[in-house]
Design a protein that fits this description.
The complex is a heterodimer of chains A (107) and B (370). Chain A is mostly beta strands and 107 residues long. In chain A, 7% of the residues lie in helices and 27% in strands. Chain A contains one helix and seven strands. With 370 residues, chain B is an alpha/beta fold. Classes of the chains: A mainly beta (107), B alpha/beta (370). At the A-B interface, helix 1 and strand 4 of A face helix 2, strand 10 and helix 3 of B.
Chain lengths: 107, 370
């Protein structure tokens, strides 16, 4: 949910833009990060972790923990929390990881 | 690129150091990995009361605007969305924007990487909807998005409680503060009173045994005084505290020390804020977790030391300024925690072989409680 009429300074631009997540079109506000834009649309689960196959989403919001990895315009492993959303941006879950599930990893 | 001074990190410490250095005619580059400057000031909506006397009491967002705007007319180059990734054999520092790496040749470096949040871990802690308390504040105050409807906060330091208050003010239902100890860690009465009046249950002697849900957190089980309680929760905020970010110091071969009261491991430094590696300085939370006043003052001390070593300030003038700044730092930091300042003095005394007069005076002052 977007906050409207937020009373604090540094108000977000009201300009609405369109981007897509897993081929679904969504709205965002200019100047928002991809991670926040997804959360504003009620999406918390960004993808599945590569080894344990568990859901992952925003965790540190500071570009350190890598929990928010997304594929953005074809580029894998993009940190959704420090990447600004853009008009027409194609975002998808980071499902293009190499298959790391193998015996050596105990899988 | 070539420069007199390279600053790693464009948060409050980096921005203030850049201003002081560039005001002394020092050509400065600031590298920051985010898309905008200000670091963690960008989402601080609470009033900051412990600022150095040159700043009026204000909220973090306006302070950030001031710190950024006053660099406009100075010889400061900002490289946003750039990250320090290593050093070259000849000492140049490599910063990358993900596509290309720029070598930067700098006479002096101030590392102001700040701090990272630590996490409590429990079964389900990696589920979407579980995040650090700082992340919840960023989503809410900087991104203007509500991070959840029904929240709990694990941990009860002052920052966690403050963000709890902000969550409530933005319409989130805060269903509990979960504290492992038998009392709250935070001590700001005003915030605690706000939470009490808002009817937020405080669970002491408690911890989360499990968070669960289909694809995101929906349910949390807490252990409160030995008995289990189930709650319907879609936002779990972890507020354990901060620890200095150290990677650049490791790359630059700096020596480290452990000071619990300053957030754990941190680079050793002198009263000049210079690390064990010559020409590499440290300031801000990377030099020990502290309040914003001390963050800004360490930055100023580092910048003045750089100005002195580059011949832009004479020794007497620089020494006198540093002494005043250290005194102000002592007063500002001790107001929050005497232990922090003692930790700093201990760290510097162990590092500096010949303890200079300036440091001894400070040490006596902090022990004597002047």
């Amino acid at each position: 949910m977007q906050i409207v009429n937020h009373s604090i300074p540094g108000k977000k631009s009201e300009k609405e833009i369109t981007f897509s997540f897993n081929d679904k079109f969504l709205k965002a506000r200019e100047g928002q990060t991809v991670a926040a834009a997804l959360m504003a649309n009620g999406i918390k689960k960004f993808g599945i972790s590569r080894k344990l196959q568990q859901p992952r989403g925003l965790f540190c919001a500071n570009g350190r923990c890598c929990s928010c990895f997304l594929t953005v315009n074809g580029l894998n492993h993009v940190l959704g929390c420090i990447t600004l959303v853009e008009e027409g941006m194609k975002v998808s879950s980071n499902d293009a990881d190499p298959d790391v599930r193998r015996k050596a990893n105990g899988d | 690129m070539e420069t007199d001074l390279l600053i790693i990190g464009g948060g409050p410490a980096g921005l203030h150091a850049a201003y002081v250095a560039a005001s002394n005619g020092i050509k400065t580059i600031v590298v920051d990995e985010s898309f905008s400057l200000g670091g963690q000031l960008r989402q601080q909506t609470q009033r900051l009361t412990n600022l150095p006397k040159q700043f009026d009491s204000q909220i973090g967002i306006t302070l950030m605007q001031t710190l950024v705007e006053r660099l406009t007319d100075l010889d400061v180059t900002i490289l946003s969305k750039h990250t320090m990734i290593g050093t070259y054999k000849d000492g140049r520092i490599g910063v990358s924007n993900g596509q290309r790496t720029i070598p930067i040749s700098a006479e002096k470096v101030i590392v102001t990487t700040g701090a990272a949040e630590e996490a409590f871990v429990f079964p389900g802690w990696t589920l979407p909807g579980v995040m650090t308390i700082g992340a919840a504040q960023i989503v809410m105050n900087r991104e203007h998005v509500i991070p959840g409807k029904n929240a709990i906060i694990i941990g009860s330091n002052d920052f966690a409680l403050e963000v709890g208050k902000q969550l409530i003010e933005n319409g989130v239902s805060l269903q509990g503060v979960i504290e492992n100890e038998d009392q709250l860690i935070g001590c700001k009465e005003e915030t605690i009173q706000f939470l009490k009046e808002a009817g937020v249950p405080i669970y002491q002697n408690s911890y989360v045994t499990q968070a669960s849900g289909a694809g995101e957190v929906e349910k949390v089980i807490i252990n409160h005084n030995g008995s289990e309680k189930e709650m319907e929760i879609d936002l779990v905020c972890i507020g354990k505290g901060l620890t200095p970010i150290l990677e650049p110091f490791e790359i630059l071969s700096c020596d480290f020390a452990y000071e619990k009261d300053l957030g754990g491991w941190l680079p050793q430094y002198s009263t000049l804020m210079e690390t064990s590696t010559a020409s590499i300085y440290v300031a801000g939370n990377a030099a020990g977790i502290t309040n914003l006043g001390a963050i800004l003052l360490t930055a100023e001390i580092a910048a003045i030391s750089v100005a002195e070593s580059l011949g832009r300030q004479c020794k007497e003038e620089a020494t006198e300024k540093r002494e005043l700044l250290w005194q102000e730092l002592y007063h500002l930091e001790s107001a929050d925690s005497k232990a922090k300042f003692h930790g700093r003095i201990k760290l510097m005394r162990e590092f500096q072989d010949n303890v200079d007069i300036q440091l001894s005076k400070l040490f006596n002052m902090s022990v004597g409680g002047v």
